[in-house]
Amino acid sequence: MRKIAVLTSGGDAPGMNAAIRSAVRKAIYENIEVYIVSHGFNGLIHNNIKRADLGDVGDIIHRGGTALYSARSEEFKTLAGRQKAADNLKALGIEGLIVIGGDGSYAGADKLQELGINTVGVPATIDNDIFGTDVTIGYDTALNTIVDMIDRIRDTATSHERTFIIEVMGRDSGELALNAGLAAGAETIFIPERNTKMSDVAERIQAGLDRGKKHSLIVVAEGVMSAEYCSTELAKYIKIETRISVLGHIQRGGKPSAGDRVLGSRLGAYAVELLLLGRSGVGAGVSRNELTATEFSYVHVQNKQYDNSIYQLSKELSI
Ligand SMILES: Nc1ncnc2c1ncn2[C@@H]1O[C@H](COP(=O)(O)OP(=O)(O)OP(=O)(O)O)[C@@H](O)[C@H]1O
Ligand SMILES: O=P(O)(O)OC[C@H]1O[C@](O)(CO)[C@@H](O)[C@@H]1O
Ligand SMILES: [Mg+2]
């Protein structure tokens, strides 16, 4: 393989820049021509593809977001859109594509393969919802951001003796909510992977009040319900003063943690190695600190396991 391209797709994630830099520089190190595509799959369709040099990825390793811009491309979901994308790559002689993104981006990369482009995925999403890797690029930074925000909320919750309901991102995954809840010492965590009864939550809050505990933190994953809905439902069981806080896109921005930079650097370079080994249709990952490659077909059908012991521990510690 002589020419490859790199793009970022889906929600941006801190550490994507480290992965871009690593893929580009590793390719150059291996004497491969490397191209950068801006605006995700839309950029492929509209031919936003340019030859990259070492300097094109300089001074980005420490920045949040993605220097290549990202997109959610509806056109790429059509065969006609994907055909244009594949034709544009082939016209430049590009045989391999590294897709840095989430599960949706993997689905797109998988379909592009069918049109004769070798594709390798690099898992980057704050949601940590990709099977085949213990952790995705961006998750660690987002988790730390959320915990920092909840710490701030705790200050005011304590001062006013209130219950706060904090809504966090994660789409259908409870990973962010679960681990942020444990790390921030939340009393209650709602995640899509578990069914938590509002009546039980109200009972726990009441038991706390009876013991003299005045404030409470409830973390709710957006995949379960909104903070607003949670507040309305809780009010049916217990009369307490509540406030809601929707953390929103603050969770996605910011300087990548050292962990995300290391992960991005490892996986970006590994994706190049996989393409050079003739692999296609696989997602790069780390499992128990070893680099791994998992077939997209497997990634799509497997659900990432959540760790119930973390949920249990959080419950035991937050009485
Ligand atoms: N089934 C599919 N076929 C073709 N393309 C797809 C498919 N699913 C997703 N894509 C492409 O991948 C893009 C990114 O997917 P999506 O919006 O789900 O984000 P993601 O990669 O999962 O990242 P995140 O969840 O972190 O935002 C979509 O906008 C679309 O262009
Ligand atoms: O930025 P958008 O398009 O509103 O997407 C928000 C979604 O993207 C993510 O931040 C990443 O997948 C999800 O947690 C969230 O549901
Ligand atoms: Mg996704």
Describe this structure in words.
- A 7-stranded mixed sheet has the order 3-2-1-4-5-10-11, sandwiched between helices. Strands 7-8-6-9 form a 4-stranded parallel sheet, sandwiched between helices.
- It has 319 residues and is of the alpha/beta class.
- The radius of gyration is 22 Å and the shape is elongated.
- It has helices spanning 16-29, 40-45, 79-91, 103-113, 139-160, 175-184, 198-210, 227-235, 258-276, 296-301, 308-317, and strands at residues 3-8, 33-37, 49-51, 96-101, 118-123, 163-168, 188-190, 216-221, 242-246, 282-287, 290-295.
- It has 2 domains: 3-138 and 256-301, Rossmann fold (3-Layer(aba) Sandwich); 140-253, 3-Layer(aba) Sandwich (Rossmann fold), CATH 3.40.50.
- Helix content is 42%, strand content 18%.
- Helix 5 (139-160) packs across helix 6 and helix 6 packs parallel to helix 11 (308-317).
- The site of 6-O-phosphono-beta-D-fructofuranose has 10 residues, from loops.
- Its main location: cytoplasm.
- Substrate binds at residues 125-127, 162, 169-171, 222, 243, 249-252.
